[in-house]
Design a protein that fits this description.
Blueprint lengths: L4 E3 L3 H39 L4 E2 L16 E8 L5 E6 L5 E11 L4 E10 L16 E9 L17 E2 L4 H7 L9 E4 L22 H23 E3 L8
Parallel strand pairs: 2-3, 4-8, 6-9
Antiparallel strand pairs: 1-10, 3-5, 3-7, 4-5, 5-6, 7-9
Length: 244
């Protein structure tokens, strides 16, 4: 004999489930919209990085830093190596080391804080790497980057010991007593020789893009909710006793 099943929804579980299902679907669709926006943004930034470099703009021309993020520029000036700052970073092949942030006194008389590139941990001190200290006027090409705040679980900047973990440009400029500082970092391009230190080209379009994972999570929860709801309300019918 075939077993018969019936779907018999109950009032309160249905009242609770329908709004919850609607909310989960809305959240999933919202994350899909965010995914499309993020992919478009990444595409625009990658396209911007491929543009020909322009002269470093004046600070007064930077109305929105987002409009200049990842924009290639070039600038000339003199490095102030005595005011170098080091930021702990993982470098090539996962090796620990430091990015070198050095003020550049530009031809216009303003300071630009340049990320010149990465050196391994054992070469943190300048006297161990004299070949990384260019003297005289230099001409740089690189991309502009915005300052950034401390990330979750990241250490605080150790300002007294000139040890940095995130790009607080204002604090770095104050620590080195730099006035007329350009409001964005300049990340210098890599040398043609990949073995030459510091290793430049430390910029990648690495925006966090977890929106697809989030969308799948919300839609997955919606599916699970529907399955649980159906299991809870589908019951096997009890056959009526035969009347003789």
């Amino acid at each position: 004999m075939l077993k018969k099943f019936a779907f018999k929804p109950r009032f309160w579980p249905t009242v609770i489930t329908i709004p919850a299902l609607i909310i989960l679907c809305i959240l999933g669709n919202w994350q899909l919209d965010r995914l499309a926006w993020k992919l478009d943004l990444i595409g625009k930034l990658e396209e911007r990085m491929g543009l020909a470099p322009v002269d470093l703009p004046k600070a007064t021309e930077i109305e929105r830093q987002d409009d200049w993020e990842y924009r290639p520029v070039h600038v000339s000036g003199h490095f102030l190596h005595m005011r170098e700052m080091t930021m702990y970073r993982i470098g090539p092949n996962g090796r620990p080391g430091y990015d070198l942030f050095t003020p550049l006194l530009s031809e216009g008389g303003n300071y630009v804080l340049v990320n010149r590139g990465w050196v391994p941990e054992d070469l943190k001190q300048q006297h161990l790497r004299p070949e990384t200290i260019p003297l005289g006027e230099v001409k740089l090409q690189g991309v502009l980057r915005k300052p950034w705040s401390r990330q979750r679980f990241a250490p605080e900047n150790d300002i007294e010991n000139n040890q940095w973990y995130f790009g607080d440009l204002e604090a770095m400029a104050d620590h080195q007593d730099l006035n007329n500082i350009f409001p964005m970092f300049l990340y210098a391009n890599a040398y043609d020789d990949p073995t030459k230190l510091p290793v430049g080209g430390r910029t990648r379009v690495d925006l966090v893009n977890n929106h697809l994972d989030y969308a799948m999570t919300w839609f997955g929860l919606a599916i699970v909710l529907v399955i649980i709801y159906l299991i809870f309300h589908i019951r096997r019918e009890t056959p009526n006793p035969e009347i003789h």
